[in-house]
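F.,

This is the one I mentioned.
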């Protein structure tokens, strides 16, 4: 059947109801036979926990990241929690975290009776910088959690320098940036998550490398830390039924690992598709008054877990409603600064109650549909809908 055309002979725009923030179904259909077989193989093998699929995914992810050790676990939040548990911190120790991030990055700090110290971020890249972190360091600071927000690396070299000078651990929250690469000052290119002492990532379905359920992983190059992380994730046991420390139970199941084994070889292609969509958005949106397309972090690639705009003048919610009416879904990541969350009110974390860039971003950011299956007709429709708001 011929593509329907409008009166000017242009391809007709897709029906707005088709547009999704994330399209996991089309991505699945492109590898259906492979995934179905991999899942069936696990079911037929009966090796649901710690089966061969988990071990092969672990090895493949180590190779992909160039990481010494990968410890798969149940989700990205657990990865962060296990990382902090393995560092031997004491209650009241301070951990520095950006205030503009997903709650998990700070939640695990508070959960472990440590003190989250929230700091501001760069209003153009949305990432925390060494200069945001430095003034927050005290004698009680033990660790920093840089979050590679929306899919590009924080500028890690100055953060690592600061950490070295103050003897701090660095735990990278790489949940949104798996697939991104950071170039160190000596020219060495590293996968995000492999620059600090520990990297943590998530395989939540909508992440760039998403499972069909929950999953996560921790990585480190430090042999001793790897042993501790493995032990903590497995009930604190080094030998079965001998528990050396209080740990938790956090596993990646074999079915999820089998699915991830199908998707990991495709991750770079998925990221490239996201980068193409981002380039289209950039090219067609950068001239609009009061609208800022996302700035690229120096020394990092961007894998666009999110494509996030800023719009000034208290117009963000109006733009969101305008797009909603046109059938274009958008999301606000994140509408509330962590220091303003009810959960942190009246806690040590509330020592900070206002950070100007974070405050600005909670009011100005809006994330557009972004996934590995974006096609040009959909992009053209979304861009047209946005441009009509400014007309
Ligand atoms: C998704 C995410 C997490 C948590 O991952 P889960 O697998 O959902 O627990 C942590 N930090 C950031 C920045 C995230 O985006």
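My design for it:
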């Amino acid at each position: 059947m011929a593509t329907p055309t409008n009166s000017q002979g242009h391809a007709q725009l897709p029906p707005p109801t088709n547009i999704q923030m994330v399209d996991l179904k089309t991505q699945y259909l492109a590898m259906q036979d492979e995934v179905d077989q991999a899942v069936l193989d696990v079911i037929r093998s009966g090796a649901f926990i710690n089966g061969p699929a988990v071990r092969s995914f672990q090895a493949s992810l180590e190779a992909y990241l160039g990481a010494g050790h990968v410890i798969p676990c149940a989700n990205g939040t657990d990865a962060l929690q296990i990382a902090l548990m393995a560092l031997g911190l004491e209650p009241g120790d301070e951990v520095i975290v950006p205030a503009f991030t997903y709650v998990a990055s700070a939640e695990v700090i508070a959960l472990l009776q440590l003190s989250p110290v929230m700091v501001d971020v760069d209003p153009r890249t949305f990432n925390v910088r060494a200069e945001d972190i430095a003034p927050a360091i005290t004698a009680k600071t033990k660790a920093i959690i840089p979050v590679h927000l929306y899919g590009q690396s924080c500028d890690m070299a100055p953060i690592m320098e600061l950490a070295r000078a103050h003897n701090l651990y660095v735990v990278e929250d790489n949940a949104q940036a798996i697939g991104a690469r950071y170039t160190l000052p000596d020219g060495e290119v590293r996968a995000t998550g492999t620059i600090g002492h520990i990297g943590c990532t998530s395989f939540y379905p909508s992440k760039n490398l998403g499972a069909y359920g929950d999953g996560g992983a921790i990585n480190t190059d430090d042999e001793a830390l790897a042993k501790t992380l493995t032990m903590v994730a497995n009930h604190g046991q080094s030998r079965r039924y001998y528990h050396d420390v209080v740990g938790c139970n956090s596993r990646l199941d074999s079915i999820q690992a089998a699915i991830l084994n199908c998707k990991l070889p495709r991750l770079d292609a998925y990221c490239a598709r996201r980068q193409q969509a981002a380039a289209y958005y950039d090219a067609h949106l950068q001239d609009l008054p009061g609208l800022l397309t996302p700035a690229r972090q120096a020394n990092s690639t961007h894998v666009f877990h999110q494509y996030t705009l800023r719009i000034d003048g208290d117009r963000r919610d109006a733009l969101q409603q305008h797009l909603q009416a046109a059938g274009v879904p958008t999301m606000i990541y994140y509408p509330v600064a962590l220091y303003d969350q009810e959960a942190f009110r009246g806690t040590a974390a509330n020592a900070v109650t206002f950070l100007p860039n974070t405050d600005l971003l909670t009011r100005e950011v809006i994330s557009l549909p972004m996934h590995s299956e974006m096609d040009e007709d959909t992009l053209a429709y979304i861009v047209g809908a946005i441009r009509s708001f400014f007309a």
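Residues 1-11 have pLDDT under 50 and may be disordered.

Talk soon.
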